[in-house]
Design goal:
The complex is a heterodimer of chains A (112) and B (112).
Chain A: E1 5-7, E2 10-13, E3 19-24, E4 31-38, E5 42-50, E6 53-57, E7 64-68, E8 74-78, E9 87-94, E10 102-103, E11 107-111
Parallel strand pairs in A: 2-11
Antiparallel strand pairs in A: 1-3, 3-8, 4-5, 4-9, 5-6, 7-8, 9-10, 9-11
Chain B: E1 4-7, E2 10-14, E3 19-25, E4 32-38, E5 45-51, E6 56-59, E7 62-67, E8 72-77, E9 86-92, E10 101-102, E11 106-111
Parallel strand pairs in B: 2-11
Antiparallel strand pairs in B: 1-3, 3-8, 4-5, 4-9, 6-7, 7-8, 9-10, 9-11
Classes of the chains: A mainly beta (112), B mainly beta (112).
Chain lengths: 112, 112
């Protein structure tokens, strides 16, 4: 079974721009969660989607948003980028009824 | 909300020796505790997990123990090998809630 895939793997943007990151979960997994990883704050939960609905949300500003499609693929969007948004953005998927989350390789975003 | 503390932040052990990493959590409702290994340039990889109805779980050289009363859980790696060098994260969540709260990570270095 293929693992969680994320595209793109690397991205460079400038302040004020917006960015869209994509995540394809493991086949059969319907829950997709997003995390931000930075040296200062560690791994922090952004939000979780299940069956195209946001079920849970972390403490991030409204500039961070996401969505999930009927095939369980998910995207997250960050608008009006700030320098502090530079991070590794990780996507994780899990199957129905299972807590175990499997992570993708992440998208490394650099905001200049 | 949940708070997970992890110690030590760095750990160096001789190859063949054992390594122990400890975590404490604050929310008594937490009942799922995974451990992840993250290598440079990769996403976190699940190495072992434990649920609150179990006190100990072992998988070859890796074991996890859980003390619900004291709200702490530990990762034990025996007969360490150079490929065990990585950053290890503990995490906690509540059943039915996909949000993982992570510890701050332990950088483990195995000295040949």
């Amino acid at each position: 079974k293929a693992g969680v895939t994320q595209t793109p793997r690397y991205l460079i943007k400038t302040r004020g721009q917006q960015v869209t990151l994509s995540c394809s979960p493991i086949s059969g997994h319907r829950s997709v969660s997003w995390y931000q990883q930075t040296p200062g704050q560690g791994l922090q939960f952004l939000f979780e989607y299940f069956s195209e609905t946001q079920r849970n949300k972390g403490n991030f500003p409204g500039r961070f948003s996401g969505r999930q499609f009927s095939n369980s693929r998910s995207e997250m969007n960050v608008s009006t980028l700030e320098l502090g948004d530079s991070a590794l953005y990780l996507c994780a998927s899990s199957s129905p009824g299972q807590e175990t989350q499997y992570f993708g390789p992440g998208t490394r975003l650099l905001v200049l | 909300g949940e708070n997970v503390e992890q110690h030590p932040s760095t750990l160096s052990v001789q190859e063949g020796d054992s390594a122990v990493i400890k975590c404490t959590y604050s929310d008594s409702a937490s009942n799922y505790f995974p451990w992840y290994k993250q290598e440079l340039g990769k996403g976190p990889q699940l190495i072992i997990d434990i649920r609150s109805n179990v006190g100990e779980k072992k998988d070859q050289r890796i074991a996890v123990t859980l003390n619900k009363t004291a709200k702490h859980f530990s990762l034990h790696i025996t007969e360490t090998q150079p490929e065990d060098s990585a950053v290890y994260f503990c995490a906690a969540s509540t059943q039915g809630n996909e949000k993982l709260t992570f510890g701050t990570g332990t950088r483990l270095t195995i000295i040949p």
